């Protein structure tokens, strides 16, 4: 279970290094569009426990609620190719009382080329009724400690792709 420690620094972004597998690619050797989701979700699922000491299933058991995706917005910038090593970063870009927006993005291994950006918007819902509920307790602590907290009211994923490309090219 996540226990907030005010003395501890919590990274705002997770990062994984993975290889693009042959079985996940199309005949042109590009990562299949649907497989990006698997790579993104698996990378975050691997990194959250390492960075924050939190297994999401523990929050689900304690609070009897979970985040359910209700919107994906994905922008394919450059293809990921079979056998290529890539970096996958993720972060909670924004949240409110019952919703989070998780941003995932993929680069080449040297982090010089942006490949894909995904925004997943999720609502926090009760397990029993499947109805929206507010974040509370350790869930709120986790969100406060780890969220990037970007004002997304006037930004689109297209704008975000441009910003990420500029940040990556600057390095």
UniProtKB/TrEMBL annotation:
It comes from the Bacteria. CDD domains: 4HBT. Gene3D superfamilies: Hotdog Thioesterase. InterPro entries: HotDog_dom_sf. SUPFAM superfamilies: Thioesterase/thiol ester dehydrase-isomerase. This is Acyl-CoA thioesterase. It comes from Algoriphagus confluentis. The lineage of its organism: Bacteria, Pseudomonadati, Bacteroidota, Cytophagia, Cytophagales.
């Amino acid at each position: 279970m996540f226990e907030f420690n005010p003395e501890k620094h919590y990274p705002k972004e997770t990062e994984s290094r993975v290889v693009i597998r042959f079985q996940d690619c199309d005949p042109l050797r590009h990562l299949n569009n649907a497989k990006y989701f698997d790579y993104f979700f698996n990378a975050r699922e691997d990194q959250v426990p390492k960075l924050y000491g939190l297994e999401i299933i523990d929050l689900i058991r304690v609070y009897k609620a979970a985040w359910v995706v209700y919107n994906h917005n994905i922008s394919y910038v450059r293809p990921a190719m079979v056998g290529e090593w890539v970096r996958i970063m993720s972060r909670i870009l924004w949240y409110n009382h019952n919703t989070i927006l998780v941003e995932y993005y993929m680069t080449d291994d040297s982090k010089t080329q942006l490949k894909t950006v995904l925004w997943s918007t999720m609502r926090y819902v009760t397990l029993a009724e499947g109805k929206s509920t507010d974040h509370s307790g350790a869930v709120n602590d986790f969100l406060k400690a780890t969220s990037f907290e970007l004002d997304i009211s006037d930004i689109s994923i297209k704008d975000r792709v441009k910003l990420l490309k500029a940040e990556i090219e600057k390095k």
